[in-house]
Automatic annotation (TrEMBL):
The protein's name in its UniProt record: Uncharacterized protein
Function comment: Involved in membrane trafficking from the Golgi to the plasma membrane.
Superkingdom in the source lineage: Eukaryota
Subcellular locations according to the entry: Cell membrane; Golgi apparatus membrane
Main location as per UniProt: membrane
Amino acid sequence: LLGCWAGVGKSCLLLRFSDGSFTTSFITTIGIDFKIRTIELDGKRIKLQIWDTAGQERFRTITTAYYRGAMGILLVYDVTDESSFNNIRNWIRNIEQHASDNVNKILVGNKADMDESKRAVPTSKGQALADEYGIKFFETSAKTNLNVEEVFFSIARDIKQRLADTDSKSEVWFL
């Protein structure tokens, strides 16, 4: 899970997906955290190891070290914070430098439950950026559980398809 900086909701998305819970208290991720969840995908049990990276600039050198082994990356921004969206291109450049060439990516606009008056990034703008890079796009809410399962299952399906195409037999997937 990558995002431009602290507060876009990466940890909340991970907590919602892995534990089914949500908290309003904000605790900054220091360096890297991870959770594991085993899912069933097309009749097969798959163990997802999901890494939650710190969004703060001072942890950038730590987090880039984890890109190389990632099979999938969720690029998360906050729909109420335009600067978090504007920084996504920088993260994509960073991924291109440090991650595997064929890593699966999905753009995620989080906090979609927020009042429309607080929204700074229209859905159409998120979709346009995803289209530009040829990646999928979801809007999510860790608070209401909107599209949380869907985004994680979508990237898992994409990875499964890519691995099937390359005949990889890995049983643990790193996101």
